[in-house]
Design brief:
By secondary structure, the chain is α/β, with parallel strands linked by helices. It has eleven helices and ten strands.
């Protein structure tokens, strides 16, 4: 096995070294640096260590990185030293502005040539595209990713991570990504795709969570035991899931008119929605979110779609 080495002053406890340590890069297993060791970054680093990858970590608050030393990580005192130590650089910080501050520093950017940057920070599609172009201009390869999981799922078969960008660096390092989660997917070469799909999935999640908040508020106002609410949610969740799946399929096919396969048209939904609004008004429950629903309903109804399939509402979620 061929190996090369780079000498950098690193210590597993984060303290200054009296002598230089050798960081060996295996031709079989690449060295990986993780920038950002909050809860998610730490979970990523631990998963890599468990899979046998030599892992270097850096964090702005060094104490968070030092804790990973007990798991076998090497702590880099600076971003530049972390980058110099590895072929792959995984970034998981607060936002793309923070990534920019780290990677575009004058002493860091020259060391990025030939590296693979894997951006796992939450961001926007246009931010991913801009960062991808910047990385290419400085000789680095780039994959942008979105983690659709909480830290406890990282390193497990159920861990889902979406990656977009050039296919080659993904296929070359697929074992690395599989160490982070069993459900890692390359979803396309357009760099912004992972973040775009992440936002779409989050919209589904927040819809459910805010719906849950409304349901809790109504239940409390009407004296309904929340345990009973939980039982009814469990019973009806498969029905709601089926409605969402049907909504996506019909919208994808452009089948907006009611037909024999329509599960529900806009009209009965809107009638029941008026009852919810009246209840919330009577009980003085915050209507900020549901007033937004009302606006979408009204745009569709005024355009003559009251008796069309609920999927017709998707045509009125664009520019207002």
């Amino acid at each position: 096995m061929r190996a090369s080495s780079t000498t950098i002053p690193l210590a597993r406890d984060g303290k200054k070294c009296a002598s230089r340590q050798w960081i060996w890069r295996s031709a079989m297993k690449p060295s990986i640096s993780v920038l950002g060791t909050g809860r998610m970054g730490s979970a990523l680093a631990r998963a890599l260590l468990k899979a046998g990858y030599r892992t270097v970590v850096w964090n702005r608050t060094s104490e968070k990185a030092v804790a990973l030393g007990a798991h076998g990580a090497t702590v880099a005192p600076t971003v530049r030293q972390a980058i110099d130590a590895s072929e792959i650089v995984i970034v998981n910080v607060s936002d793309y502005a923070a990534t920019s501050t780290l990677l575009r520093a004058s002493d860091v950017t020259p060391g990025l040539g030939g590296k693979l940057i894997v951006e796992l920070t939450s961001g926007t599609p246009h931010g991913a595209r801009e960062t991808s172009g910047w990385a290419a201009a400085h000789g680095a390869r780039y994959l942008d990713g979105a983690i659709l999981a909480t830290p406890d799922f990282i390193g497990t078969d159920a861990g889902t991570i979406l990656l977009s960008g050039a296919l080659e660096p993904f296929t070359e390092n697929e074992d690395v990504f599989r160490a982070l989660g069993g459900n890692v997917q390359h979803i396309g070469t357009e760099p912004g795709l992972a973040n775009a799909l992440d936002s779409a999935v989050l919209a589904l999640m927040w819809g459910a969570l805010f719906g849950g908040l409304h349901a809790i508020a109504v239940s409390k106002a009407e004296g309904i035991d929340l345990g009973e609410l939980g039982r009814q949610w469990t019973a009806t969740a498969p029905v709601i899931e089926g409605l969402v799946v049907d909504l996506i399929k019909r919208t994808n096919a452009g089948r907006f008119e009611s037909d024999a396969e329509t599960l529900s048209s806009i009209s009965p939904h809107y009638g029941a929605f008026q009852h919810l609004k009246e209840l919330m008004e009577a009980r003085r429950i915050d209507r900020t979110v549901v007033d937004g629903y009302e606006a979408v309903f009204q745009r569709a109804i005024q355009a003559g779609h009251l008796h069309d399939d609920f999927a017709a509402l998707s045509r009125f979620m664009g520019e207002t």
